[in-house]
Specification:
By secondary structure, the chain is α/β, with parallel strands linked by helices. Helices cover 30% and strands 20% of the residues. It has two domains: 289 residues, FAD/NAD(P)-binding domain (3-Layer(bba) Sandwich); 149 residues, 3-Layer(bba) Sandwich (FAD/NAD(P)-binding domain). The protein starts with a strand and ends with a strand.
Amino acid sequence: MSSSDTTTPGGQTRRHVRVLIVGSGLSGLGTAIRLSQAGITDYVVVERGPDVGGTWRDNTYPGAGCDVPSHLYSYSFALNPDWSRSFSPQAEIERYLQGVADRYGVRDKHLFDCAMTATRWDDTARRWEIDTARGGFTADFVVSAAGVLAEPNLPDIKGISSFEGEIFHSARWNHQASLAGKKVAVIGTGSSAVQIIPAIAPQAQRLDVYQRTATWVMPQFNRPYLAVERLAFKRVPGLQRLIRSLIYLVREVFVLTQVKAPWTGRLLELVGRAKMWLEIRDPVTRRKVLPQHRIGCKRMLVSNKFYRTLDRPDVDLVTDGIAEVRAHSIVTEDGTEREVDAIVLATGFHVADSPTFNLYAGRDGRTASEAADAEGYQMYKGTTVANFPNMFFMLGANSGLNYTSLIYIIESQLNYVIDAITRMDAENLQTFEVKLDTQRAYNRALDPKIARTVWVGGGCNSWFLDKHGRNSALWPDFSFRYRRQVRTFDLEAYDTTAKTA
């Protein structure tokens, strides 16, 4: 047994590490790199998949791409001058993340095909015990970077398990299944669906699109970069960073339409309405896609092909609710039965109710899910939680954005994480746990800001809301204000214990 191994009271040998990171998507990979840069090398990343990439490794459906501009959708310390387009396709982002992992030499810190199955706090030893598919660990700190788009949300529809054709979720695309010449149904019209539907419609014999709620769709100004532009990004000092900063500033304007002055969203709604009139000839379809909520209440979609695809004669937009699924058909609540050979579930993900939360058991034995049931889905600065000492949650409660790059928030949180660990070392501290009163006060201060947003008053029910009806997903202010509050670790907000010999 090496000096870094520990033995539990039950006699099980576990490998001990200073920091254990769960997941290697944008958050987990960024954490690994920043730890290495800070000189903290005693860490391991456990990743259930075969490579880095997270959602960009898993979501390989036809048409998959990013709705945030390419130059903004990259780490600030690893800008990519070789983006092919202003909005990048999935495969290109996946290659970028693989390249970043290689460039910063963190692959040897990963255990791939290694799902975390349980994590619990040992209050006696004052550290975490982690069970994985490839053995046990103990860790002084745990960083949960499992991702907000990691667990597909499968619909509970009567008879769906009896369907005898091809059926799969958009995030688990079956590339062995051919949709050519088949009657295909897509359930959902969210961010993934508006990319999938135009990509598969030309090959299907018929495509039925099942829409529960119409959502505003904006134009996407997507174009290929010229070779001379990519050369300039490489050779002209500061050019790419300047463009990135300008894109960032433009994106921050959307805070006005959603948070600061929701009435300004009416201008964007005019753009959305004009887009419908220009791209959909059929007035019945046009009425079906007209949202009944204010723009920004649900995540705005971007597509230049979605509306035109719905206008095809071999595509039918169905707005009646689904009553049941049968062996070879879907029956809607109006009694109509439509034959179908394949079903694509574009039904989104578990966010505030992620099953991952069931795998973390805190100091009092409650899981993160149970703690959320009791307190609501709340965290302190979107990163730490009472009852979970020495644990960081990446992209936690009220740290998300729906108008710009989440990488900005991830890097902001990483400032907090790295400063926390280095402060703990410098002050000879072993544990930290945010004070419950401090956590509650922080969230009480957020609530009035959230109440004024279009997410609450815009007339919709979105995945932004948790089961308590609170918007626990999004940050209700400018993103630079979030970065400012997590720039340094505020030790006074935490109960701490000193290291023992």
